[in-house]
Specification:
single chain, 367 residues, 2 strands
Length: 367
């Protein structure tokens, strides 16, 4: 919005010329999102506390979690506001890629908000019925997948994905591309949601992952960088850098309140929305495979649940007694029950997330 309003006035004030540069608008989006979070965060936390919209704790969780009971939740609304305002103000909204990630963020944010409403206000422990939540995620994936597949400007590579470690490597999936988009967006949304079980864990990992994808978006949106690195050149993806920096700033601001001991939890409002936006960025940038590496902790959390449930059912069918691979799933609870303090689990998972992000970025110049 500001790009179109103020850039034509650059002859009157030279400072407006800075809006030409994506890096300036990205940095501004990050700072603005951070400040918005600091501004509305305390008021939102007080309101949630006053309305008694607090976290309910499952009795099966480690005993240390009992102290979290009643902590304000639905704080993901803070993140959504802090991302939307800077992106609308500073990104070029005529670029369809920006509209796609905003759609993913808002779509799953509303579904998560309704889920939180049912659990924390209406006091329905199960929240939104799983099949309805899944229907919303699949519908979003179908819209994004169809948009990318049938968009004329993307015709040459519309059904292709990038292959890491291979110069100009790609794989054309044909009609299987749209189902892959549905799988990536749905899977990433749920993965971030599963990871949001310790103070600051999902927030910090999202900040790391979205920064990595912001860099990728910037590089792929420049013909000189993409040519040098032998990767897809996707005109317009540079604007996703602005969105990514806004989400980074919102995550860092939210982490101020979400770090141990957390003053607020993001709830499904934040985790489902951010996961969907991350998955959407991955499919837009054709980096679905790299998402598995950048989001390695998210993947590990999901796999731990799948393995735990699958092995329990299989062993019960064979032996009559259900057995477990992990002490508890998702994975972060397993380490808690191994005696690791919560802060140690969080920091070590962050470190692994940083290393995986750096490794992922290093794959772009292999030949």
């Amino acid at each position: 919005m500001l790009y179109h309003l103020l850039l034509p006035l650059r002859d009157w004030f030279f400072g407006f010329n800075l809006l030409r540069y994506i890096t300036f608008r990205g940095a501004s989006a990050a700072v603005l999102a951070l400040l918005i979070t600091f501004w509305i965060g305390p008021a939102m936390i007080r309101w949630l506390s006053r309305m008694q919209i607090g976290e309910t704790i499952n009795n099966t969780l480690p005993t240390a979690h009992a102290t979290k009971k009643g902590t304000p939740t639905m704080g993901g609304t803070i993140i959504l506001i802090a991302v939307l305002l800077p992106t609308v103000l500073l990104a070029r909204l005529e670029q369809p890629y920006v509209l796609m990630v905003l759609l993913a963020l808002v779509w799953m944010g509303l579904i998560g908000l309704f889920d939180d409403y049912l659990k924390d206000i209406r006091k329905y422990p199960a929240g939104l019925i799983v099949r309805r939540k899944l229907a919303g995620q699949i519908s979003l994936g179908l819209i994004i997948g169809g948009w990318l597949y049938f968009w004329p400007a993307n015709a040459e590579i519309r059904s292709s994905i990038s292959l890491p470690f291979v110069a100009n490597g790609s794989l054309d999936l044909g009609f299987l591309y749209i189902p892959l988009v549905i799988l990536v967006i749905t899977g990433t949304s749920n993965a971030v949601n599963l990871t949001d079980g310790l103070d600051g864990l999902a927030t910090g990992l999202m900040a790391i992952a979205i920064l990595a994808f912001g860099v990728i978006a910037y590089v792929m949106g420049r013909v000189d960088f993409s040519d040098y690195l032998n990767i897809f050149y996707l005109p317009g993806t540079g604007e996703l850098f602005v969105f990514a920096m806004a989400l980074l700033g919102a995550c860092m601001g939210f982490l101020w309140f979400n770090a141990k001991p957390a003053e607020v939890f993001m709830g499904d409002t934040g985790s489902l929305a951010m996961g969907a936006a991350l998955g959407c960025m991955a499919v837009i940038l054709k980096q679905e495979i790299l998402l598995v590496l950048i989001g390695g902790i998210f993947v590990a959390e999901v796999l731990s649940v799948v393995i735990q449930v699958g092995y329990f059912k299989l062993s019960k069918r064979i032996t009559g007694e259900g057995r477990r691979v992990f002490r508890m799933a998702p994975l972060h609870h397993h380490f808690e029950l191994c005696g690791w303090p919560e802060s140690r689990v969080v920091i070590r998972f962050w470190i692994i997330g940083i290393l995986l992000a750096l490794l992922s970025l290093s794959t772009f110049k292999v030949l």
